[in-house]
Amino acid sequence: MKGLILKDFYLLKSYGKQYVLIFGAMIIYALFMRSSSFAMIYFVLMGSTVVLSSMSMDEAVSFHKFALTMPVNLSTIIKSKYILFLITIGIGTAVSILMELVLTFVSSDARIWISFGREEFAATVTVFVLANAISIPFMFKLGVEKARYINICSMLAVGGFLVISATMGDKIGLSIGRLDEILSSNEFVGLCIAIGVISLTVSYLVAVKIAENKEW
């Protein structure tokens, strides 16, 4: 397991300079626009797409056919991709929070930098988690390129569902602004974490079932 994850990071190391340049550009953009919202979303998005890039490189060299000749089973290979996803989206989330904290101290008026509350940021990360929970099993079934489109459609679908739900809620008097009357900030973040854990668990089980029925 450790070797599979390290293999992915060694492969992704070739993109290291690109990531550094993008991170730097996003920080400069945030300073210029005096808002870190877009940069925070982009960092999490980059973290959530790394697993697709990793799988793409595996497909290019038929790594899975080679790996299955070693003392590694299919479920371990799949599990390593989910762990890679959790690590990279965790890094993206941590960088986003760190950037928000740093930019808060840049300005004399700290409030100008506070773009996301805990609830909004937790909801944003959850959207990316749900989108990847849907697309990763398709990655093993249909391949990376088709899975990319499914990933994009999944994010649009989840985001659209939230917007429609909020709009409908406003019409029937369940405004999202009253959410704090139902759940505290910690409870809402906990709910988002629970949704993420459950969706990834179900996604993993589905991916294993799909992969077992596929000829590599």
From TrEMBL:
Organism domain of life: Bacteria
Transmembrane stretches in the record are 12-32, 38-61, 82-106, 121-140, 149-168, 188-207
Q: Does the keyword Amino-acid biosynthesis apply?
A: no
Q: Which UniProt keywords apply?
A: Membrane, Transmembrane, Transmembrane helix
Q: Does the keyword Ubl conjugation apply?
A: no
Q: What is this protein called?
A: ABC-2 transporter permease
Source species of the chain:
Parablautia muri
